[in-house]
Specification:
The complex is a heterodimer of chains A (374) and B (319). Chain A is mainly α and 374 residues long. Chain A has 15 helices and 4 strands. Chain A is 70% helix and 5% strand. In chain A, a hairpin with a 2-residue loop joins strand 2 and strand 3. Chain B has 319 residues and is an all-alpha fold. Helix content of chain B is 70%, strand content 0%. Classes of the chains: A mainly alpha (374), B mainly alpha (319).
Chain lengths: 374, 319
């Protein structure tokens, strides 16, 4: 049996317009696919899309909620982008965020009584340090024992989740509310009031301090990667580790440094969860949110560009917020995940078309190659 | 004797290890062909929800409905994997991001939840489910009886699958070809082995196995539907393949070890033993990391079977 074969050929000329057209086309394809699914299951597609858009960006207070969803995604997205740029596949953003939340909450409890600025600085540093420390494990293993960081960082996510559960549900740790009610209904100790991060008002939209911080981190990452020697070297190591070694770059150090940087950014995301939104080490809430994994989607959609990460985080944050707001009997649950997945699939698939073209080749009878033994 | 705690734990280890075993066998096939599929959790959930949907809607006795529901789960898992295979084999997309995309698309907050919600699956328990079957009348044999011979058909079938996959990979021509494709695709290609075709077939069959693994939950272990029913088993399955050094027989051992770790805290707590459950639950992950370190050190690499081209797309023009 012979099928028409799809051949992939490299484009001879780079076409700049494709850089814009392909992602847009991918988005359209993804939305058509989603519309098809909606139609097939008896939900009106246009109406559903309109409600999503409305709940994400237009309704009263929608932007405020969207920024709440977008902030952690911006941090985990930046964390993933920093590592993936060097082809270090740190998928441990999830666990590093948990550890950042643990570190920041611990420091806030320890420094109760201090002023807000002191607490903010301490929480950010504490979160970054804890996240970096957790990321250092896969980083060191990769650098010195050549252990695949994908699997180790993934496994450590689960270990971090268990640490979180242990601290809040199965021990009388420093983080747990040990009052009589807290012993019956396990929950974290509330952070001091001064540990609440400030909110900036822009007309009627509340911008959390964490989001401002994420933008600052994005600028920092951009400067680091496009304006410094460190950034240049990570790029070379990512593209060609062998060339980097011959050029005398310290590959191992850089691997550890980039992993720690990635973990630190995710950790600040955890600190922002404590300071901006939860005000307690929320073991359950953090685990239900999957910020780390979604952050990788954000980074991939943004093609690892730090500014694009913030933008994509805002867009996907809107989608998540809308899914959350519209949750109910008449709104299909799981739609947000389906949309995120399909958009990412379409984008990933489309990427090839920028540099390659597909040609469908009808199998010619006389050219048929002998069947390979299957 | 057969109600002693050791026997109870061992029997639970086999029961809870079986979904892991199916998923790990599937992932093993995909990884041996060079495709690291991180979408296992998503494929398992799609298999679980479709299997459950089938068991609720296929009429007739359980003799008809149950095998059919497992088949539906396999097809669903396979189709999910086909999507990934198209992306990573034909379109050469990044395997890690694609696998995560599949888990998000199909997973606990995605398609499986969508289907479960649209068909109101959470409202009713399964109409049929796999129960224990007394195999060869050996149920009452001390220790081995309850552990090995009072399990469901899915458990017995998994043993056949282990043997089949093991023999396939080590004793058949296509099996050796798969290993060549995962090890050195350029060399395999010049031998006339269709790299893309092998990767497609094994990723899709691997997805079917993952789908069956998901059905183990929804029509056997916990015969009902809730979002995220598999509870991270897919990720453990990925760990398991490494833990088992990419070998089918060791997948069986590893699955039961990991199954014991997930069952042990529940059983101990039920008997009033106070322990720190997290310690047991963390063991599979920590052990996997240790094994991975061992595999990646020079000493281990030569003897153990990590496919050399795992995760690397094959582009003929660039070899």
């Amino acid at each position: 049996m012979t099928f028409p074969e799809i051949r992939i050929e490299k484009r001879l000329k780079r076409r700049r317009w494709l850089l814009v057209a392909v992602p847009l086309g991918s988005l359209v394809v993804a939305h058509l696919a989603i519309a098809l699914i909606l139609q097939a299951t008896g939900h009106p597609p246009v109406e559903t899309f309109r409600r999503l858009f409305d709940a994400a960006y237009l309704a009263d207070g929608a932007l405020t909620s969207t920024l709440i969803s977008a902030t952690p995604l911006a941090f985990t997205g930046l964390a993933a982008a920093v590592a993936f740029r060097m082809r270090l596949f740190n998928i441990g953003g999830e666990g590093q965020l948990y550890f950042g939340a643990i570190g920041a909450a611990g420091i806030a409890l320890l420094l109760a009584g201090q002023s807000t600025p002191v607490l903010i600085v301490a929480m950010v540093l504490g979160g970054a340090a804890f996240g970096a420390a957790w990321a250092a494990i896969p980083g060191l293993l990769r650098a010195f024992l050549n252990t695949n960081e994908i699997i180790t960082s993934l496994m450590l996510n689960y270990v971090a989740a268990l640490v979180l559960n242990y601290l809040i549900f199965d021990s009388l740790s420093y983080w747990r509310d040990t009052s009589p009610t807290g012993q019956v209904f396990p929950q974290g100790k509330y952070l001091p009031d001064a540990a609440t991060w400030p909110v900036t008002m822009a007309s009627s939209v509340e911008i959390p301090f964490g989001f401002v911080l994420a933008v600052a981190v994005a600028i920092g990452v951009w400067v680091l990667y496009s304006r410094t020697r460190f950034g240049f070297e990570t790029q070379v190591i990512g593209d060609s580790p062998r060339a980097a070694r011959y050029a005398g770059m310290r590959t191992r150090r850089k691997i550890v440094a980039v992993m720690c940087l990635s973990g630190a950014i995710a950790g600040i995301g955890g600190a922002s969860q404590d300071g901006d939104f939860r005000h307690v080490l929320d073991a359950k809430g953090l685990q239900q949110s999957n910020y780390g994994y979604t952050g990788i989607v954000v980074a991939a959609l943004a093609r690892y560009n730090p500014f694009a990460v913030v933008l994509v985080a805002f867009l996907l944050g809107g989608l998540q917020n809308a899914g959350f707001t519209l949750q109910g009997a008449d709104f299909p649950s799981g739609l947000v995940g389906v949309m995120q997945g399909l958009i990412l699939f379409a984008m990933l698939g489309g990427e090839l078309l920028v540099f390659y073209r597909l040609r469908i080749v009808r199998p010619a009878r006389r050219a048929a190659a002998p069947e390979t033994p299957a | 004797m057969n109600s002693s705690i050791v026997v109870v734990v061992l029997a639970a280890a086999v029961a809870y290890g079986t979904p892991l075993l199916y998923a790990a066998l599937g992932e093993l096939l995909a990884e041996r062909s060079g495709v690291l599929n991180l979408g296992v959790e998503g494929m398992m959930l799609v298999g679980a929800v479709m299997g459950f949907l089938a068991v609720q809607h296929i009429g007739g006795s359980s003799v008809v409905a149950l095998p059919l529901s497992v088949a539906v789960a396999a097809v669903a898992g396979g189709l999910a994997a086909l999507l990934l295979a198209f992306l990573v084999v034909t379109l050469r997309a990044n395997q890690i991001v694609s696998g995560l995309a599949l888990t998000i698309l199909a997973g606990a907050a995605g398609l499986s939840s969508y289907i479960g919600n649209d068909f109101n699956l959470a409202d009713n328990p399964a109409r049929h489910s796999f129960g224990p079957v007394n195999a060869f009348g050996l149920e009452d044999v001390p220790i081995a009886g309850p552990v090995l011979f009072a399990q469901s058909w899915l458990v017995y079938a998994s043993w056949v699958c282990v043997i089949a996959v093991g023999l396939y990979l080590s004793r058949t021509r296509p099996g050796l070809n798969v290993r060549a494709v995962g090890e050195a695709p350029a060399a395999a290609d010049s031998m006339g082995i269709g790299v893309a075709r092998y990767r497609y077939v094994h990723t899709v069959v691997g997805g079917a196995f993952a789908g069956v693994g998901g059905a183990c939950f929804s029509v056997a272990l916990t015969p009902q539907w809730v979002d995220g029913l598999t509870g991270g088993a897919g990720w453990i399955a990925i760990a398991l393949v490494i833990f088992a050094f990419w070998r089918a027989d060791l997948c069986l051992v590893g699955a039961y070890v990991f199954g014991a770790f997930s069952a042990l805290p529940l059983i101990l707590q039920a008997r009033g033993v106070t322990i720190t459950p997290q310690l047991f639950q963390a063991l599979p992950y920590v052990m996997t990391i240790l094994v991975l370190v061992l595999v990646s050190s020079g000493l281990g690499r030569r003897r153990l079977g990590a496919p050399a081209s795992l995760g690397v797309p094959y582009v003929r023009e660039e070899r």
